[in-house]
């Protein structure tokens, strides 16, 4: 079984604060996530911590929970159910007067017989990185 490990970054032409609120607030995910991905909010909290979302994509479904935030620089996510379990970290670094570098790092373990089996043949890390390109583009459009 291969773990799903990737780190993807993009410069966003919006303030670190705006980027932070977009990645921390599960209520707006549907506004910028890929149309290929269905995000259902299970719980939303004003301070973001404990907010939960269920994601359905072509590779299966999983649930995530925001476990900590450091405004406006970091959002930590725990993947706790579905085809993968582990951690994701959004990092936001101010860049210039009105931009930010957004990075998403994941360290996940395939969960269940089929995902574990497929992880030996498919490069889920590369698949995830390819999907992030579309996510970053969607975020930039949403914030514009």
Can you give a write-up of this model?
The protein has four helices and seven strands, in the order E-H-H-E-E-E-E-E-E-H-H. The chain has 144 residues and is α+β, with helices and mostly antiparallel strands. It has a single domain (4-143), classed as START domain (Alpha-D-Glucose-1,6-Bisphosphate, Chain A, domain 4, 2-Layer Sandwich), CATH 3.30.530. Helices cover 27% and strands 45% of the residues.
Helix amount, in percent?
Answer: 25-40%
**Total separate domains:** 1
Inertia-based shape: globular
Report the order of strands and helices.
EHHEEEEEEHH
Computed over alpha carbons, the radius of gyration is 15 Å
β-strand amount: over 45%
Enter the CATH topology name. Answer: Alpha-D-Glucose-1,6-Bisphosphate, Chain A, domain 4
What's the topology here?
Layout: E1 4-12, H1 16-24, H2 29-32, E2 38-43, E3 52-57, E4 60-70, E5 74-82, E6 84-95, E7 99-110, H3 113-118, H4 124-143
Antiparallel strand pairs: 1-7, 2-3, 3-4, 4-5, 5-6, 6-7
Core attributes:
about 140 residues, alpha+beta, Alpha-D-Glucose-1,6-Bisphosphate, Chain A, domain 4, seven-stranded antiparallel sheet
Summary?
The protein is 27% helix and 45% strand. With 144 residues, the chain is of the alpha+beta class.
């Amino acid at each position: 079984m291969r773990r799903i490990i990737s780190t993807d970054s993009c410069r966003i032409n919006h303030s670190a604060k705006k980027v932070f609120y977009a990645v921390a607030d599960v209520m707006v995910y549907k506004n910028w996530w890929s149309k290929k991905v269905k995000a259902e909010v299970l719980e939303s909290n004003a301070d973001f911590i404990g907010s939960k979302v269920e994601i359905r994509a072509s590779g299966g479904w999983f649930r995530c929970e925001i476990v900590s935030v450091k405004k406006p620089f970091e959002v930590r996510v725990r993947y706790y159910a579905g085809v993968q379990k582990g951690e994701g970290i959004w990092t936001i670094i101010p860049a210039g007067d009105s931009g930010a570098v957004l990075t998403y790092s994941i360290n996940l373990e395939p969960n269940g017989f089929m995902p574990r089996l497929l992880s030996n043949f498919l490069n889920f890390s590369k698949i995830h990185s390819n999907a992030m390109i579309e996510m970053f583009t969607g975020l930039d459009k949403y914030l514009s």
